[in-house]
Amino acid sequence: GLATIAAPAIAQSSDPIIRWRLVSSFPKNIETLYGCAEVMSKALAASTDNKFQIQVFAAGEVVPGLQAFDAVANNTVQICHSASYYYTGKDTAFAFGAHAPFMLNTRQQAAWAYHGEGKKLLEDFYRGFNVVAFPGGNTTTQMGGWFRKEIKSVEDLKGLKFRISGLGGQVLTRMGAVPQQLGIGDIYPSLERGTIDAAEFNGPADDEKLGLYKVAPHYYYPGFWDGTSMQHFFINSAEWDKLPKHYQAALQSAAALANIDSIARYDVLNPPALRRLVAAGAKLHAFPADVLDSAYDTTMELYEELSAKNPTFKKFYDSQKAFQKDASLWNQVSEFAYDSTIIRELRR
Amino acid sequence: GLATIAAPAIAQSSDPIIRWRLVSSFPKNIETLYGCAEVMSKALAASTDNKFQIQVFAAGEVVPGLQAFDAVANNTVQICHSASYYYTGKDTAFAFGAHAPFMLNTRQQAAWAYHGEGKKLLEDFYRGFNVVAFPGGNTTTQMGGWFRKEIKSVEDLKGLKFRISGLGGQVLTRMGAVPQQLGIGDIYPSLERGTIDAAEFNGPADDEKLGLYKVAPHYYYPGFWDGTSMQHFFINSAEWDKLPKHYQAALQSAAALANIDSIARYDVLNPPALRRLVAAGAKLHAFPADVLDSAYDTTMELYEELSAKNPTFKKFYDSQKAFQKDASLWNQVSEFAYDSTIIRELRR
Which residues 6+ apart lie within 8 Å of A278 measured at CB? Predict the structure, then answer.
């Protein structure tokens, strides 16, 4: 009878059309960073049949790049793409969502944030600002920046006018350097005139665009204050809570795609950019051991002080420190050991 | 007038209900590997409001684990979760979708497959089998396995009965070892009775379940034949082409989520598993330099021979080799340099 005829396998749904605005902390011309939001937004629109659309605005188009998080917290826009460490002025604990000097590397930061203690710590922390967050990009380990003169020992940092910010800037201040705050466009002329002595930005692919090798050819590594640098999509929690569950899930998957895409893109762009920079005159140097050791000790002192002042900072720091200890041992018998082998064999 | 009243912001859609079956190459009890398909399937169902559902079957439930790819190619099932290197018997070029001895590390494999030449090479190659593929998990660098006796030089490999397969097995054969094919459940009793001398499986988190440290306590690193090990979701191309575009996009994002989730999960599980194994008696050793050097030279000879026999192999090999050269240089001034610094500072 009729009762046994199956209903056609079609779901009648009435999915709301949702349009959000996203502000990026990054300018359009740094396409590696700016592009993460575009990758996420396109994947999200594609997987919702264009029903959930997010329009991406570059830094400064709606709010200044470094106010992206606040614009989300106060619901000026629903979502932003930014780096947590820009907001250490509010709370020093913001550093750990992106990177903190001498802490996790790129894989470890992802592990800690997706599957480790960081997942809940970050969720609870950002919820305190009415914000929900998902990892959405990573520059990977950055370079230590461009210097007009060689750094032969820790003494050479004394009085050095260095364009660097955040906790890295605090560490270098304690080591005698004089951190400078400069917009990206001001770096080249300041180095050229000698009003600053050094500047850090990112890695070869992004640094190449600034042309700094022409005026500050000494290119140092590793960027010990930026061993990794994760970005997030930050979402106003009231707007998030209003979303249909399947839009939430689609956004979360699209953010994961953007995250993995970002790292893969940097890993494809950085190697040839490094070759070109060296061919154009950049001189690669490792930071001397005494600089790294002194910077490490200074950083650990700073962390003790910040932990004493701020229990949230201490909670994050203790968690990352414990994870780093175990993860570094594992790294020494796995990826690091494999990389060492490849480096050795390619040199033979 | 009425004409100016906006239509309500609701899209009327008739999304088809789609149910697929996925066969995994992995058993349920290796949850790190088996779980990737569950993570993808849940993310996909969640982002399509449960309209696109994929039921996951463990190895052997529908077809044997090592026939998962064939089951997709001939449309017995629509999708599988498997490792490309299982299928080198069809074509040696399959290795490069997962790993090849002494080739890319985990980040490099992802970069090459998502943004490098590997993207198109793999797409075209798998399409030749009527298959569409997306990366969907990675064990990361594996260990070199469990040995009853120490390996002090390349001489100790002569006659060694070693449970290992794929191109790694071919390399070890040329070095005098005698590769053995054994199911996972047979490894422990075979090592215990001494019918084999050594066995490789994966890394600490998965290896711990087999308890091999009790019968073959010498745990070697690095697994030079498994510097990374990427898995894929392989999809029958006719089934893929029939999907609505937004279901395709949702599946692609869900696969990316599963991929990043897999690496993060291993990176959280492996470090404490390694500690427990060492506490239980596992003895960690690096392979001696002469073993690594001889294995590298043997591998390069094998690659030349396979390249001469198989133009597809050559195309993949040339691409990965060129990428590795540049990427390894970049690694030495970025993540590897940072990791070296952290290892040094944690030991001071």
Answer: A284
The CA dihedral of A291, A297, A302, A303, to the nearest 10 degrees, is 120
Q: Is position B249 within any domain?
A: yes
Tell whether the model's pLDDT for residue B273 goes beyond 50.
yes
User: For residues A110 and B68, what is the distance between their CA atoms, to the nearest angstrom?
Assistant: 30
Read off φ and ψ for residue B89, nearest 5 degrees: -65, -30
Pairing of strands B218-221, B283-286: parallel
**What residue numbers bound the domain in which B56 lies?**
18-140+227-270
ipTM: 0.96
Q: Is A33 left (phi over 0), alpha (psi -120 to 50) or beta?
A: alpha
Nearest to B346 by CA among A327, A106, A110: A327
Q: Which SS3 state, helix, strand or coil, does residue A11 take? A: strand
Helix (H, G, I), strand (E, B), or coil: what is residue A51?
A: coil
CB A27 within 8 A of CB A60: yes
pLDDT for A72-101, tens place per residue?
999 999 999 999 999 999 999 999 999 999
- Whether residue B222 is preceded by a cis peptide bond, meaning omega within 30 degrees of 0, is yes
CA distance B70 to chain A (A): 28
The DSSP H or E segment spanning B285 is strand B283-286
A328 CA to centre of own chain? 20
Which residues of A are less than 8 Å from B203 in CB distance?
334
- How confident is the model over A188-215, as a mean pLDDT? 96
Q: What is the pLDDT of residue B2?
A: 46
For B302-340, write each residue's pLDDT tens digit: 999 999 999 999 999 999 999 999 999 999 999 999 999
Distance from CA of B89 to the nearest CA of A (A): 26
Interface touch A257/B261, C-beta < 8 Å? no
In a mutational test of the B interface, the residue from A108, A260, A266, A276 whose CB has the highest number of chain B CBs within 10 Å is A260
Angle among Cα B289, B200, B217 to the nearest 5 degrees reads 80
User: Residue A316 is encoded by which pair of tokens?
Assistant: 């994050």
Burial A202-230 (b: 16+ CB within 10 A, else e): bbbbbbbebebbebbbbbbbbbbbbbbbb
In angstroms, the CA A255 to CA A230 distance is 12
Here the CATH number for the domain that contains residue A66 is 3.40.190.170
Classify residue B8: in a domain, yes or no.
no
- What CA–CA distances, in Å, run from B218 to B275, B278, B286? 15, 10, 10
CA–CA separation, A189 and B227 (whole Å): 44
Is residue B285 a contact partner of residue A82, using CB atoms and an 8 Å limit? no
Residue found under tokens 């995994």: B24
Residue B324 in any domain: the answer is no
- Min Cα distance B246 → chain A (Å) is 4
Give the residues across from A180 on adjacent strands.
A163
Q: How many residues does chain A have?
A: 348
CA dist B307 and A293 (Å) reads: 47
Helix, strand, or coil (residue A239): helix
Flag if B46 and A249 touch (Cβ within 8 Å): yes
Query: Contacts of residue B296 in chain A, CB cutoff 8 Å?
Result: 341, 345, 348
Q: B3: pLDDT confidence band, cut at 50, 70 and 90?
A: very low
Is pLDDT above 60 for B90?
yes
What is the phi/psi pair of residue B85, to 5°? -70, -15
- Share the mean pLDDT of chain B: 95
Asked if the peptide bond before residue A179 counts as cis, ω within 30 degrees of 0, the response is: no
Sorting pLDDT into bands at 50, 70 and 90, what band is B183?
A: confident
Q: Assess if residue B334 is contained within a domain.
A: no
Inter-chain contacts counted by CB atoms under 8 A, chains A and B: 297
Could you give the number of structural domains in chain B? Answer: 1
Q: Which of A16, A246, A325 sits opposite B48 (nearest CB)?
A: A246
